[in-house]
Design brief:
Layout (H helix, E strand, L loop, with lengths): L4 E3 L2 E3 L3 E2 L2 E2 H4 L5 E3 L7 E2 L1 H6 L2 E2 L3 E7 L2 E6 L8 E8 L2 H4 L6 E18 L4 E13 L4 E7 L6 E13 L1
Parallel strand pairs: 1-5
Antiparallel strand pairs: 1-2, 3-4, 6-14, 7-10, 8-9, 9-14, 10-13, 11-12, 11-13, 11-14
Length: 165
């Protein structure tokens, strides 16, 4: 191991503050600074705010990422139950949408769906997908049923999250 401090995961020797070397200020091998890892930002409420539901359905937030889908009439297999025909600019929908980054969708439910569109592709009753995203991007998206839904209430766990590149 070389003598000196580490900055951003690299050993630094010979740098000085006011004539005192960094290596002299720190125990050898000490990490002074690392670039912080980007955090995930929940965008689910913002996406659902610009989305529509199939007739005969209501969606109620029940907690962090938890939603209750109330179905009042039978919904045929292959119906888009939640989605948006067009979001012109993701950055206009959400001020904290990253200029460039990643969007991640986590889905868990007893309702089997297919996710299509610019926010990712996935299918099943439990899946997680990630795709590149940009604030300037325009998208459409939707959950399509992969089963018939009878009248009743269904629990969905859905999270759309973003982080900067």
């Amino acid at each position: 191991m070389s003598a000196g401090a580490m900055i951003g995961g690299k050993t630094v020797a010979g740098m000085a503050f006011g004539g005192v070397s960094i290596a002299g200020l720190c125990k050898a091998g000490t990490v002074i600074w690392r670039k912080p890892k980007p955090e995930w930002t929940d965008q689910t409420d913002k996406i659902f705010a610009v989305s529509t539901l199939t007739s005969g359905m209501t969606l109620t937030k029940a907690g962090d990422g938890d939603y209750l889908l109330a179905v009042s009439e039978t919904i045929a297999n292959g119906t888009r139950i939640i989605g948006s025909d067009w979001i012109p600019k993701l950055g206009d929908m959400s001020a904290d949408w990253p200029t460039e980054g990643t969007v991640r969708l986590t889905y868990e439910s007893t309702v089997k769906v297919g996710l299509n569109g610019g926010l990712g592709w996935g299918e099943g009753t439990s899946f997680q997908v990630e795709t590149a995203t940009k604030a300037e991007k325009d998208v459409w998206w939707g959950f399509w049923t992969q089963q018939e839904l009878s009248p009743g209430t269904y629990h969905l766990h859905v999270k759309f999250e973003t982080k900067s590149a």
